[in-house]
UniProtKB/TrEMBL annotation:
This is Lipopolysaccharide biosynthesis protein. It is a multi-pass membrane protein. InterPro entries: Poly_Biosynth_Transport. It comes from the Bacteria. It comes from Dankookia rubra.
């Protein structure tokens, strides 16, 4: 007799278009999973977890590469004059955008007893600030255009419309970071930045000129907003309480002023420089500074992502806080020192390869700014420490020093070329680290010798790398730019690894082991 077909149990999982019964496969833990679950488990083994520090590295490296490619490709296509005009417009927009997007983010990250009333109230207050920012940019655009002599009114007003989306994205990013969902944060770069770069390049190839930089900014802002709005998992309520904002403001107030000064000091410096020199000089200076800024973002981005939630969680355990800070300072130096020293050595070749003849004047300014960045990597992630301790006024004080000195330099020296502008800029970079080091060690109740012990490996590695790289660059001076740059970088990297790896016991830095 023919066998009767057994109907699948109602409890059996079904999937697929025709609702077939899924095959089951044993997992590594002995539990049974559906066929789809089996494939999901295999993907989890290949990709790092959502909170893995590997995503921090992917985000910062991806951000550096895409930002550098986008900046250089667009600038090279549209030329120095249009790039200078776009740089002025973007600087004005970002000066207003950055503090609004970060208005309550750090205070939400620092607060331990976070409630829905804090989140929703902070979002609606941020959107109100964005509306005010739009009005300020719209009315101020003609004034900026007259002061700089650049046709930036239309670009500034167009980018002002992005402020609400950027504000919401900044708020959502802070909430995601508080949960240490590094994979979602990395997706902003790995998915959205290539889209933005492609938009800018296509606009430049289409003859948009300086507007290409505005198109790139619009694509980046809108795509990040959509990604976080769909994936963050949080929806605001119709809830606004002044009392909730009052609880956040003691941390948010000084911190947002510090961020405003930090972000605005470069933007205002570029606008001030535009009042003294021609747009081509502004463009060359912008390229030199941005080249370093993109590279340094690898360091500051990684350190900030790891330090801010970790130190905030340890704010009531000062001994553990100090140890975590020491580990993070070592990690920051391990990444930052070789990058800064390497850029100082290879800047002329790098500019020659990436930008060509019209931009060669950016080489020396880039070298000066790279050298001046080295002391900052010896202090550690001090801004995250002051945020964790709720002493955000210290961040404001340090940023005011870094903000004031370059502007004083502009007024006194009145530079006429990019190299002189770089000298003005590094005044702030050199003045802040000694002050930051003094107050940070006092807050941690640690000695300079304690920090020096943590930094010994990166310091020795960078010293040896610098000697080897400088020798290689001199030996390869007669070679073409690309092989000379590759040879110099390879020699330096091998020398650095040969010193640092044994100094760390052939292990990952502790900051990554404990993440």
């Amino acid at each position: 007799m023919p066998r009767s077909r057994r109907k699948p149990s109602r409890s059996a999982p079904r999937c697929g278009r025709w609702r077939r019964t899924c095959r089951r496969a044993p997992s590594s833990t002995g539990a049974w999973q559906t066929g789809h679950g089996w494939h999901t488990e295999r993907m989890r083994r290949v990709l790092p977890g959502p909170a893995s520090p590997a995503w921090v590295a992917a985000e910062t490296l991806g951000s550096a590469v895409t930002a550098l490619v986008g900046l250089l490709f667009v600038a090279r296509i549209i030329g120095p004059q249009a790039a200078g005009t776009g740089a002025i417009a973007a600087s004005v927009f970002l000066t207003v955008d950055f503090p609004i997007a970060a208005l309550f983010g750090d205070s939400l990250l620092q607060r331990r007893g976070l409630e829905e009333r804090h989140r929703s109230s902070a979002l609606w207050a941020t959107m109100g600030a964005a509306a005010v920012g739009m009005l300020v940019l719209w009315l101020g655009a003609p004034l900026i255009a007259r002061a700089t002599g650049a046709p930036v009114t239309g670009m500034i007003r167009a980018m002002a419309l992005l402020l609400p989306f950027s504000a919401a994205a900044g708020m959502l990013s802070a909430l995601v970071l508080k949960e240490r969902r590094y994979r979602l944060l990395a997706s902003r770069v790995l998915l959205c930045q290539p889209l933005a770069v492609g938009t800018g390049v296509l606009a430049a190839l289409g003859g948009a000129g300086a507007w290409s930089m505005a198109a790139q900014q619009a694509a980046a802002t809108l795509s990040v907003f959509l990604l976080l709005a769909l994936r963050s998992g949080w929806r605001p309520q119709r809830l606004f309480q002044r009392a909730a904002l009052a609880e956040l403001w003691p941390v948010a107030g000084p911190q947002i002023l510090a961020l405003l000064v930090f972000n605005g000091r470069y933007r205002i410096f570029i606008v001030g420089l535009g009042m003294l020199v021609a747009e081509t000089v502004v463009a060359v200076t912008h390229i030199a500074f941005r080249l370093l800024d993109v590279a340094m973002a690898v360091v500051t981005g990684a350190a900030s992502r790891l330090a801010m939630p970790r130190l905030a969680a340890l704010q009531n355990d000062r001994a553990a806080l100090a140890e975590a800070y020491g580990d993070l300072a070592q990690l920051q130096a391990l990444i930052g020192l070789p990058i800064a020293a390497g850029l100082a050595i290879t800047a002329p070749r790098l500019i020659e390869i990436l930008m060509g003849g019209p931009w060669i004047g950016a080489a020396e300014p880039a070298r000066l700014v790279a050298l001046a960045a080295i002391p900052g990597f010896l202090v550690g992630p001090a801004p995250a420490l002051w945020l964790a301790l709720g002493r955000t006024r210290m961040n404001l004080l340090m940023q005011l020093v870094a903000f004031t000195l370059p502007l004083v330099g502009l007024l006194v020296l009145r530079p006429q070329d990019a190299a002189a502008a770089a000298i003005c800029w590094v005044l702030g970079s050199l003045a802040v680290p000694p002050l930051q080091l003094l107050v940070t060690l006092r807050a941690l109740h640690r000695s300079p010798a304690w920090l020096a012990q943590r930094l010994l490996a990166p310091l020795l590695g960078t010293l040896v790398m610098g000697v080897v790289s400088a020798w290689a660059a001199r030996e390869l001076a007669a070679q073409a730019a690309v092989p000379a740059l590759i040879g110099t970088a390879l020699a330096g990297a091998i020398a650095y690894a040969a010193v640092v790896a044994p100094a760390l016991g052939f292990r990952w830095p502790r900051a990554l082991q404990e993440a």
